Amino acid sequence: MPYEAEKSVVLDYYEALDNAEESDVAGLLSEFCSEDYLWRGFHPFDELHDTEDVAQKFWGPLKHSLQHMQRRMDVFMAGQNEMDGFTSVWVVSMGHLMGLFDNAWLGIAPTGKMAFLRYCEFNKVENGKITETAMYFDIPHLMMQAGLQPFPPQTAAHLVQPGPMTHDGLLFSPQPAEEGEKTLGAINAMISDLGQWNSGLRLEDELRRTWREDMIWWGPAGIGATYTIERYAKQHAGPFRASFTDRSETKHICRMAEGHYGGFFGWPNFTARPTGGFMGMPATDKAGEFRVIDIYRREGDKLAENWIFIDLLHFWNQQGVDILGRMAKVPRT
User: Fold this and answer.
1) Domain of 243?
2) Which candidate in 54, 123, 171, 307 could, as Cys together with 218 as Cys, close a disulfide (CB 3.0–4.6 Å)?
3) How far is CA 41 from the centre of its chain?
4) Secondary structure (3-state) at 264
5) Residue 167, by phi and psi: left (phi above 0), alpha (psi -120 to 50) or beta?
6) pLDDT per residue as tens digits for the range 108-124
7) What's the CA angle centered on 317, arms 313 and 318, to 5 degrees?
8) Is 154 among the domain residues?
9) Are 193 and 313 in a shared domain?
């Protein structure tokens, strides 16, 4: 299936939304989305259950804050969802929403300068309408652009993250079905290894089963991005495994692939209990949820790049730390 109809729905929706005035957003969403529309977003938005709520609580305030907002996509793809037996079609886009940060958003003071909100969005399309959306975005990164430091120093580096090294992530035309199958297979093999945490192999050797040696893990603000298997093991995977116990099984709502790209999201993906400290903060010994989107690029038979969106505000809120609330009260440096 080329998914042309589903992709057209989402592309038309994006064009209309990106050009709409704040006052027009609610009507526009009702045109493109179903009456029982379900929208999932990062803390503090969580689940919203109709287009009016999504317009008034998310898109309207965001468009008011990021003036002249542009959608700068790096990945665009569609595919059938493995998690429901490949019966539903989801359209995925990833990139940045860029604009002039001229008005406060979520209590974060504006800068009057360009700002980038990293985002990834999964849209389920049925009968010409968007029925479900998972819209994940890196609010702590926006805080950092506004001069705030929401977390202690991270173990890796966080920058304005680029798209694929190969610059071929915008899949507007059909892709060979066998390539998507290979990508989904590589993702599933990686998930199988990741879910164990006790493969009996050295972490680096376990990673080499499904990752290229020159892999890049584009992590969220507060953790950062890291390059090569050796540095990924040292700067994220190793510290993360050492920090948590009682990791639950992985649960996804959607997992799909097209061409050399694929990804998934969960609500939550898994839970784990911090027993060794995490992100420079002390252990709470209290299980927390990890809401995550992962997007992958495959090269050959292994994964080469991975873009990750983790709702760290939600995780820390569950641990009793209101990152957004306390940062909104801090003067910009």
Assistant:
1) 177-327
2) 307
3) 10
4) strand
5) left
6) 999 999 999 999 999 99
7) 125
8) no
9) yes
Answer whether the bond into residue 140 is a cis peptide, omega within 30°: no
Model confidence over 91-107: pLDDT tens digits? 999 999 999 999 999 99
Tokens of 225: 């991005």
Task: Please list, residue by residue across 280-303, b when 16 or more beta carbons sit within 10 angstroms of its beta carbon and e when fewer do.
Answer: ebeebeebbbbbbbbbbbbbeebb
CATH number of the domain at 40, please.
Answer: 3.10.450.50
Tell me whether residue 168 is in a domain.
no
Phi, psi of 44 (to 5 degrees): -100, 15
Taking each helix axis as running N to C, give the angle between helix 4-19 and helix 25-32, from 0 to 180 degrees, rounded to the nearest 10: 170
Residues 196 and 313 in one domain: yes
Residue 145 pLDDT > 60, yes or no?
yes
* Long-range contact pairs involving 7-10 (C-beta distance under 8 Å, separation at least 24): 7/76, 7/78, 7/91, 7/172, 9/91, 9/125, 9/128, 9/129, 9/130, 10/91, 10/93, 10/123, 10/125, 10/130
How far is 207 from 237, CA to CA, in rounded Å? 10
Instruction: Write down which residue in 126, 145, 164 finishes a domain.
Output: 145
Tokens at 317, concatenated? 């809120």
Give 209-252 pLDDT, tens digit per residue: 999 999 999 999 999 999 999 999 999 999 999 999 998 988 99
In 3-state terms, what secondary structure has residue 125?
strand
